[in-house]
Amino acid sequence: MKKENHISYEYFKNSSELSDIEKTLFDRAKQARENAYAPYSNFLVGCAILLENGEIYSGNNQENAAFPSGLCAERTTLFWVAANFPNEKIEKIFVVGGPREFHEKNPPIPPCGACRQSLIEYETKQSQDIDLYFSSMNEEVVKVYSIKDLLPFYFDATFL
Question: Which residues form the active site (predicted)?
């Protein structure tokens, strides 16, 4: 029997189509991207997380000459937020990434597989969906309403 999985998402041609809070998150992720430490890949990523209490925290990718010792922006930010605010729910996550040298044709950059797995862990933990936005510097944005939309066959504690 064949089953289909449909992903619900929104597409924004540029950041001017975003709400005020979404624009703020985009700007914070874009600013965080500028501070990324990516001397090897020259691929800079910034992340901004909105908590239920209204606070916004951001981070970026951090590389290391001893691959794969670095960490993506999503996990850098997520782990810091979880360590410092373990009981706050995450409402929205905004990711902006792309090569150091901007190319207008870069599509929106989604989280890697390892980041998706980490994000689903916290979405499951809080029993509440997280809006995830991803973009490149050309300001095209994709929004999904749950991490499950990007990782429909996710692995979580129920399998243990």
Answer: 74
Ligand-binding site membership of 115 (annotated): yes
- 112 is an annotated ligand-binding site residue: yes
Q: Which of 100, 21, 23 is nearest to 60 (CA)?
A: 100
Specify if 81 maps to a domain. Answer: yes
Could you tell me the two tokens for 81? Answer: 């937020």
Contact 144, 7 (CB under 8 A): yes
What's the whole-number average pLDDT of the chain? 95
Banded model confidence at residue 5, pLDDT cuts 50, 70, 90: confident
Does residue 157 sit within a domain? Answer: no
State the SS3 of 93-140.
EEEEEEECCCCCCCCCCCCCHHHHHHHHHHHHHHCCCCEEEEECCCCC
| Residues noted as catalytic | 74
Amino acid at 65: A
If one compares 3 and 117, the residue with the highest pLDDT of the two is 117
What number of other Cβ atoms are within 10 A of residue 126's Cβ?
15
Of 44-48, 78-82, 94-98, 103-107, which range is least confident? 103-107
Domain that holds residue 63: 9-147
Number of domains in the chain: 1
